[in-house]
TrEMBL record:
InterPro entries: Cu_polyphenol_OxRdtase, Cu_polyphenol_OxRdtase_sf, Cytotoxic_necrot_fac-like_cat. The keyword Transferase applies. SUPFAM superfamilies: CNF1/YfiH-like putative cysteine hydrolases (SSF64438). Keywords: Hydrolase, Metal-binding, Transferase, Zinc. Transmembrane segments: none annotated. It holds the Pfam family Cu-oxidase_4. CDD domains: YfiH. This is Laccase domain-containing protein. It catalyses: S-methyl-5'-thioadenosine + phosphate = 5-(methylsulfanyl)-alpha-D-ribose 1-phosphate + adenine; inosine + phosphate = alpha-D-ribose 1-phosphate + hypoxanthine; adenosine + H2O + H(+) = inosine + NH4(+); adenosine + phosphate = alpha-D-ribose 1-phosphate + adenine. It comes from Haloferula sargassicola. Belongs to the purine nucleoside phosphorylase YfiH/LACC1 family.
Length: 226
């Protein structure tokens, strides 16, 4: 898989031991199919890339129902997804303070939001498109990290992935997410600023490809000192 510039993730490394990654379009894989089949076809390439970057065979996955619920892992219940792999049901975000746990979120126009606590190394990873943004999943996750891990929002570093934006989408939910980050008191927040609908050679776009496409994969591994 070709290397790309993922320096936009560098702020996350300010948190102790945290590692993050972003897997874009995988060349040569036919994804003009529904979501579950596309994810199954992408799985071998994703597994190989996760092994290369993290040396890990497994990552936690959220069911991603366009809501605002967040689950703490490990310990959350799972169920099989349509592609046969386990997901945490009914949630669009995952948080952890368990050292070495790897979180994953799939997107194709929606935004992935990485969160890392510079003090403790606790992390979160969220799926935030139009609906999740309207429902305030970012604020929910920040509150959950505060409650579970004692995270001070001022210690958080956040990054918003490439996502669809105007003029290709009528709602600028990326701008809303940036405002929500400021309101939540997140100490440092970076919006990558890329439009997934503008570069089909690099990104999957649900809207531009009329729902028959693959998914990018956002990943973060906890480096918790707890």
């Amino acid at each position: 898989m070709a290397e790309a510039d993922f320096s936009f993730l560098d702020p996350l490394t300010k948190a102790p031991g945290v590692e993050a990654a972003w897997i874009e379009r995988v060349p040569g894989i036919d994804v003009v199919v529904d979501r579950d089949v596309a994810l199954a076809r992408l799985l071998p390439a994703h597994k190989a890339e996760v092994a290369r970057r993290f040396g890990a065979p497994f990552w936690w996955r959220a069911e991603q129902v366009h809501g605002a619920r967040v689950a703490w892992v490990p310990g959350a219940e799972t169920k099989p997804a349509g592609d046969g792999l386990p997901v945490v049901p009914g949630v669009d975000g995952l948080i952890t303070q368990a050292k070495g746990e790897l979180l994953g979120i799939y997107v194709a126009d929606c935004g992935a939001i990485w969160l890392a606590d510079r003090r403790s190394g606790a992390v979160g990873l969220l799926h935030s498109g139009k609906k999740g943004t309207e429902l305030g999943i970012l604020a929910t996750a920040v509150a959950a990290m505060r409650e579970r891990f004692g995270t001070d929002p001022a210690d958080l570093v956040g990054v918003l992935s490439p996502c669809i934006r105007p003029p290709h989408y009528e709602i600028d939910f990326a701008e809303q997410i940036v405002r929500q980050a400021e309101k939540a008191g997140i100490g440092e927040f970076r919006d990558v600023g890329c439009d997934t609908a503008s570069d089909p050679g690099r990104f999957y776009s649900y809207r531009m490809e009329k729902g028959m496409t693959g998914r990018m994969l956002a990943l973060i591994r906890c480096g918790s000192l707890a």
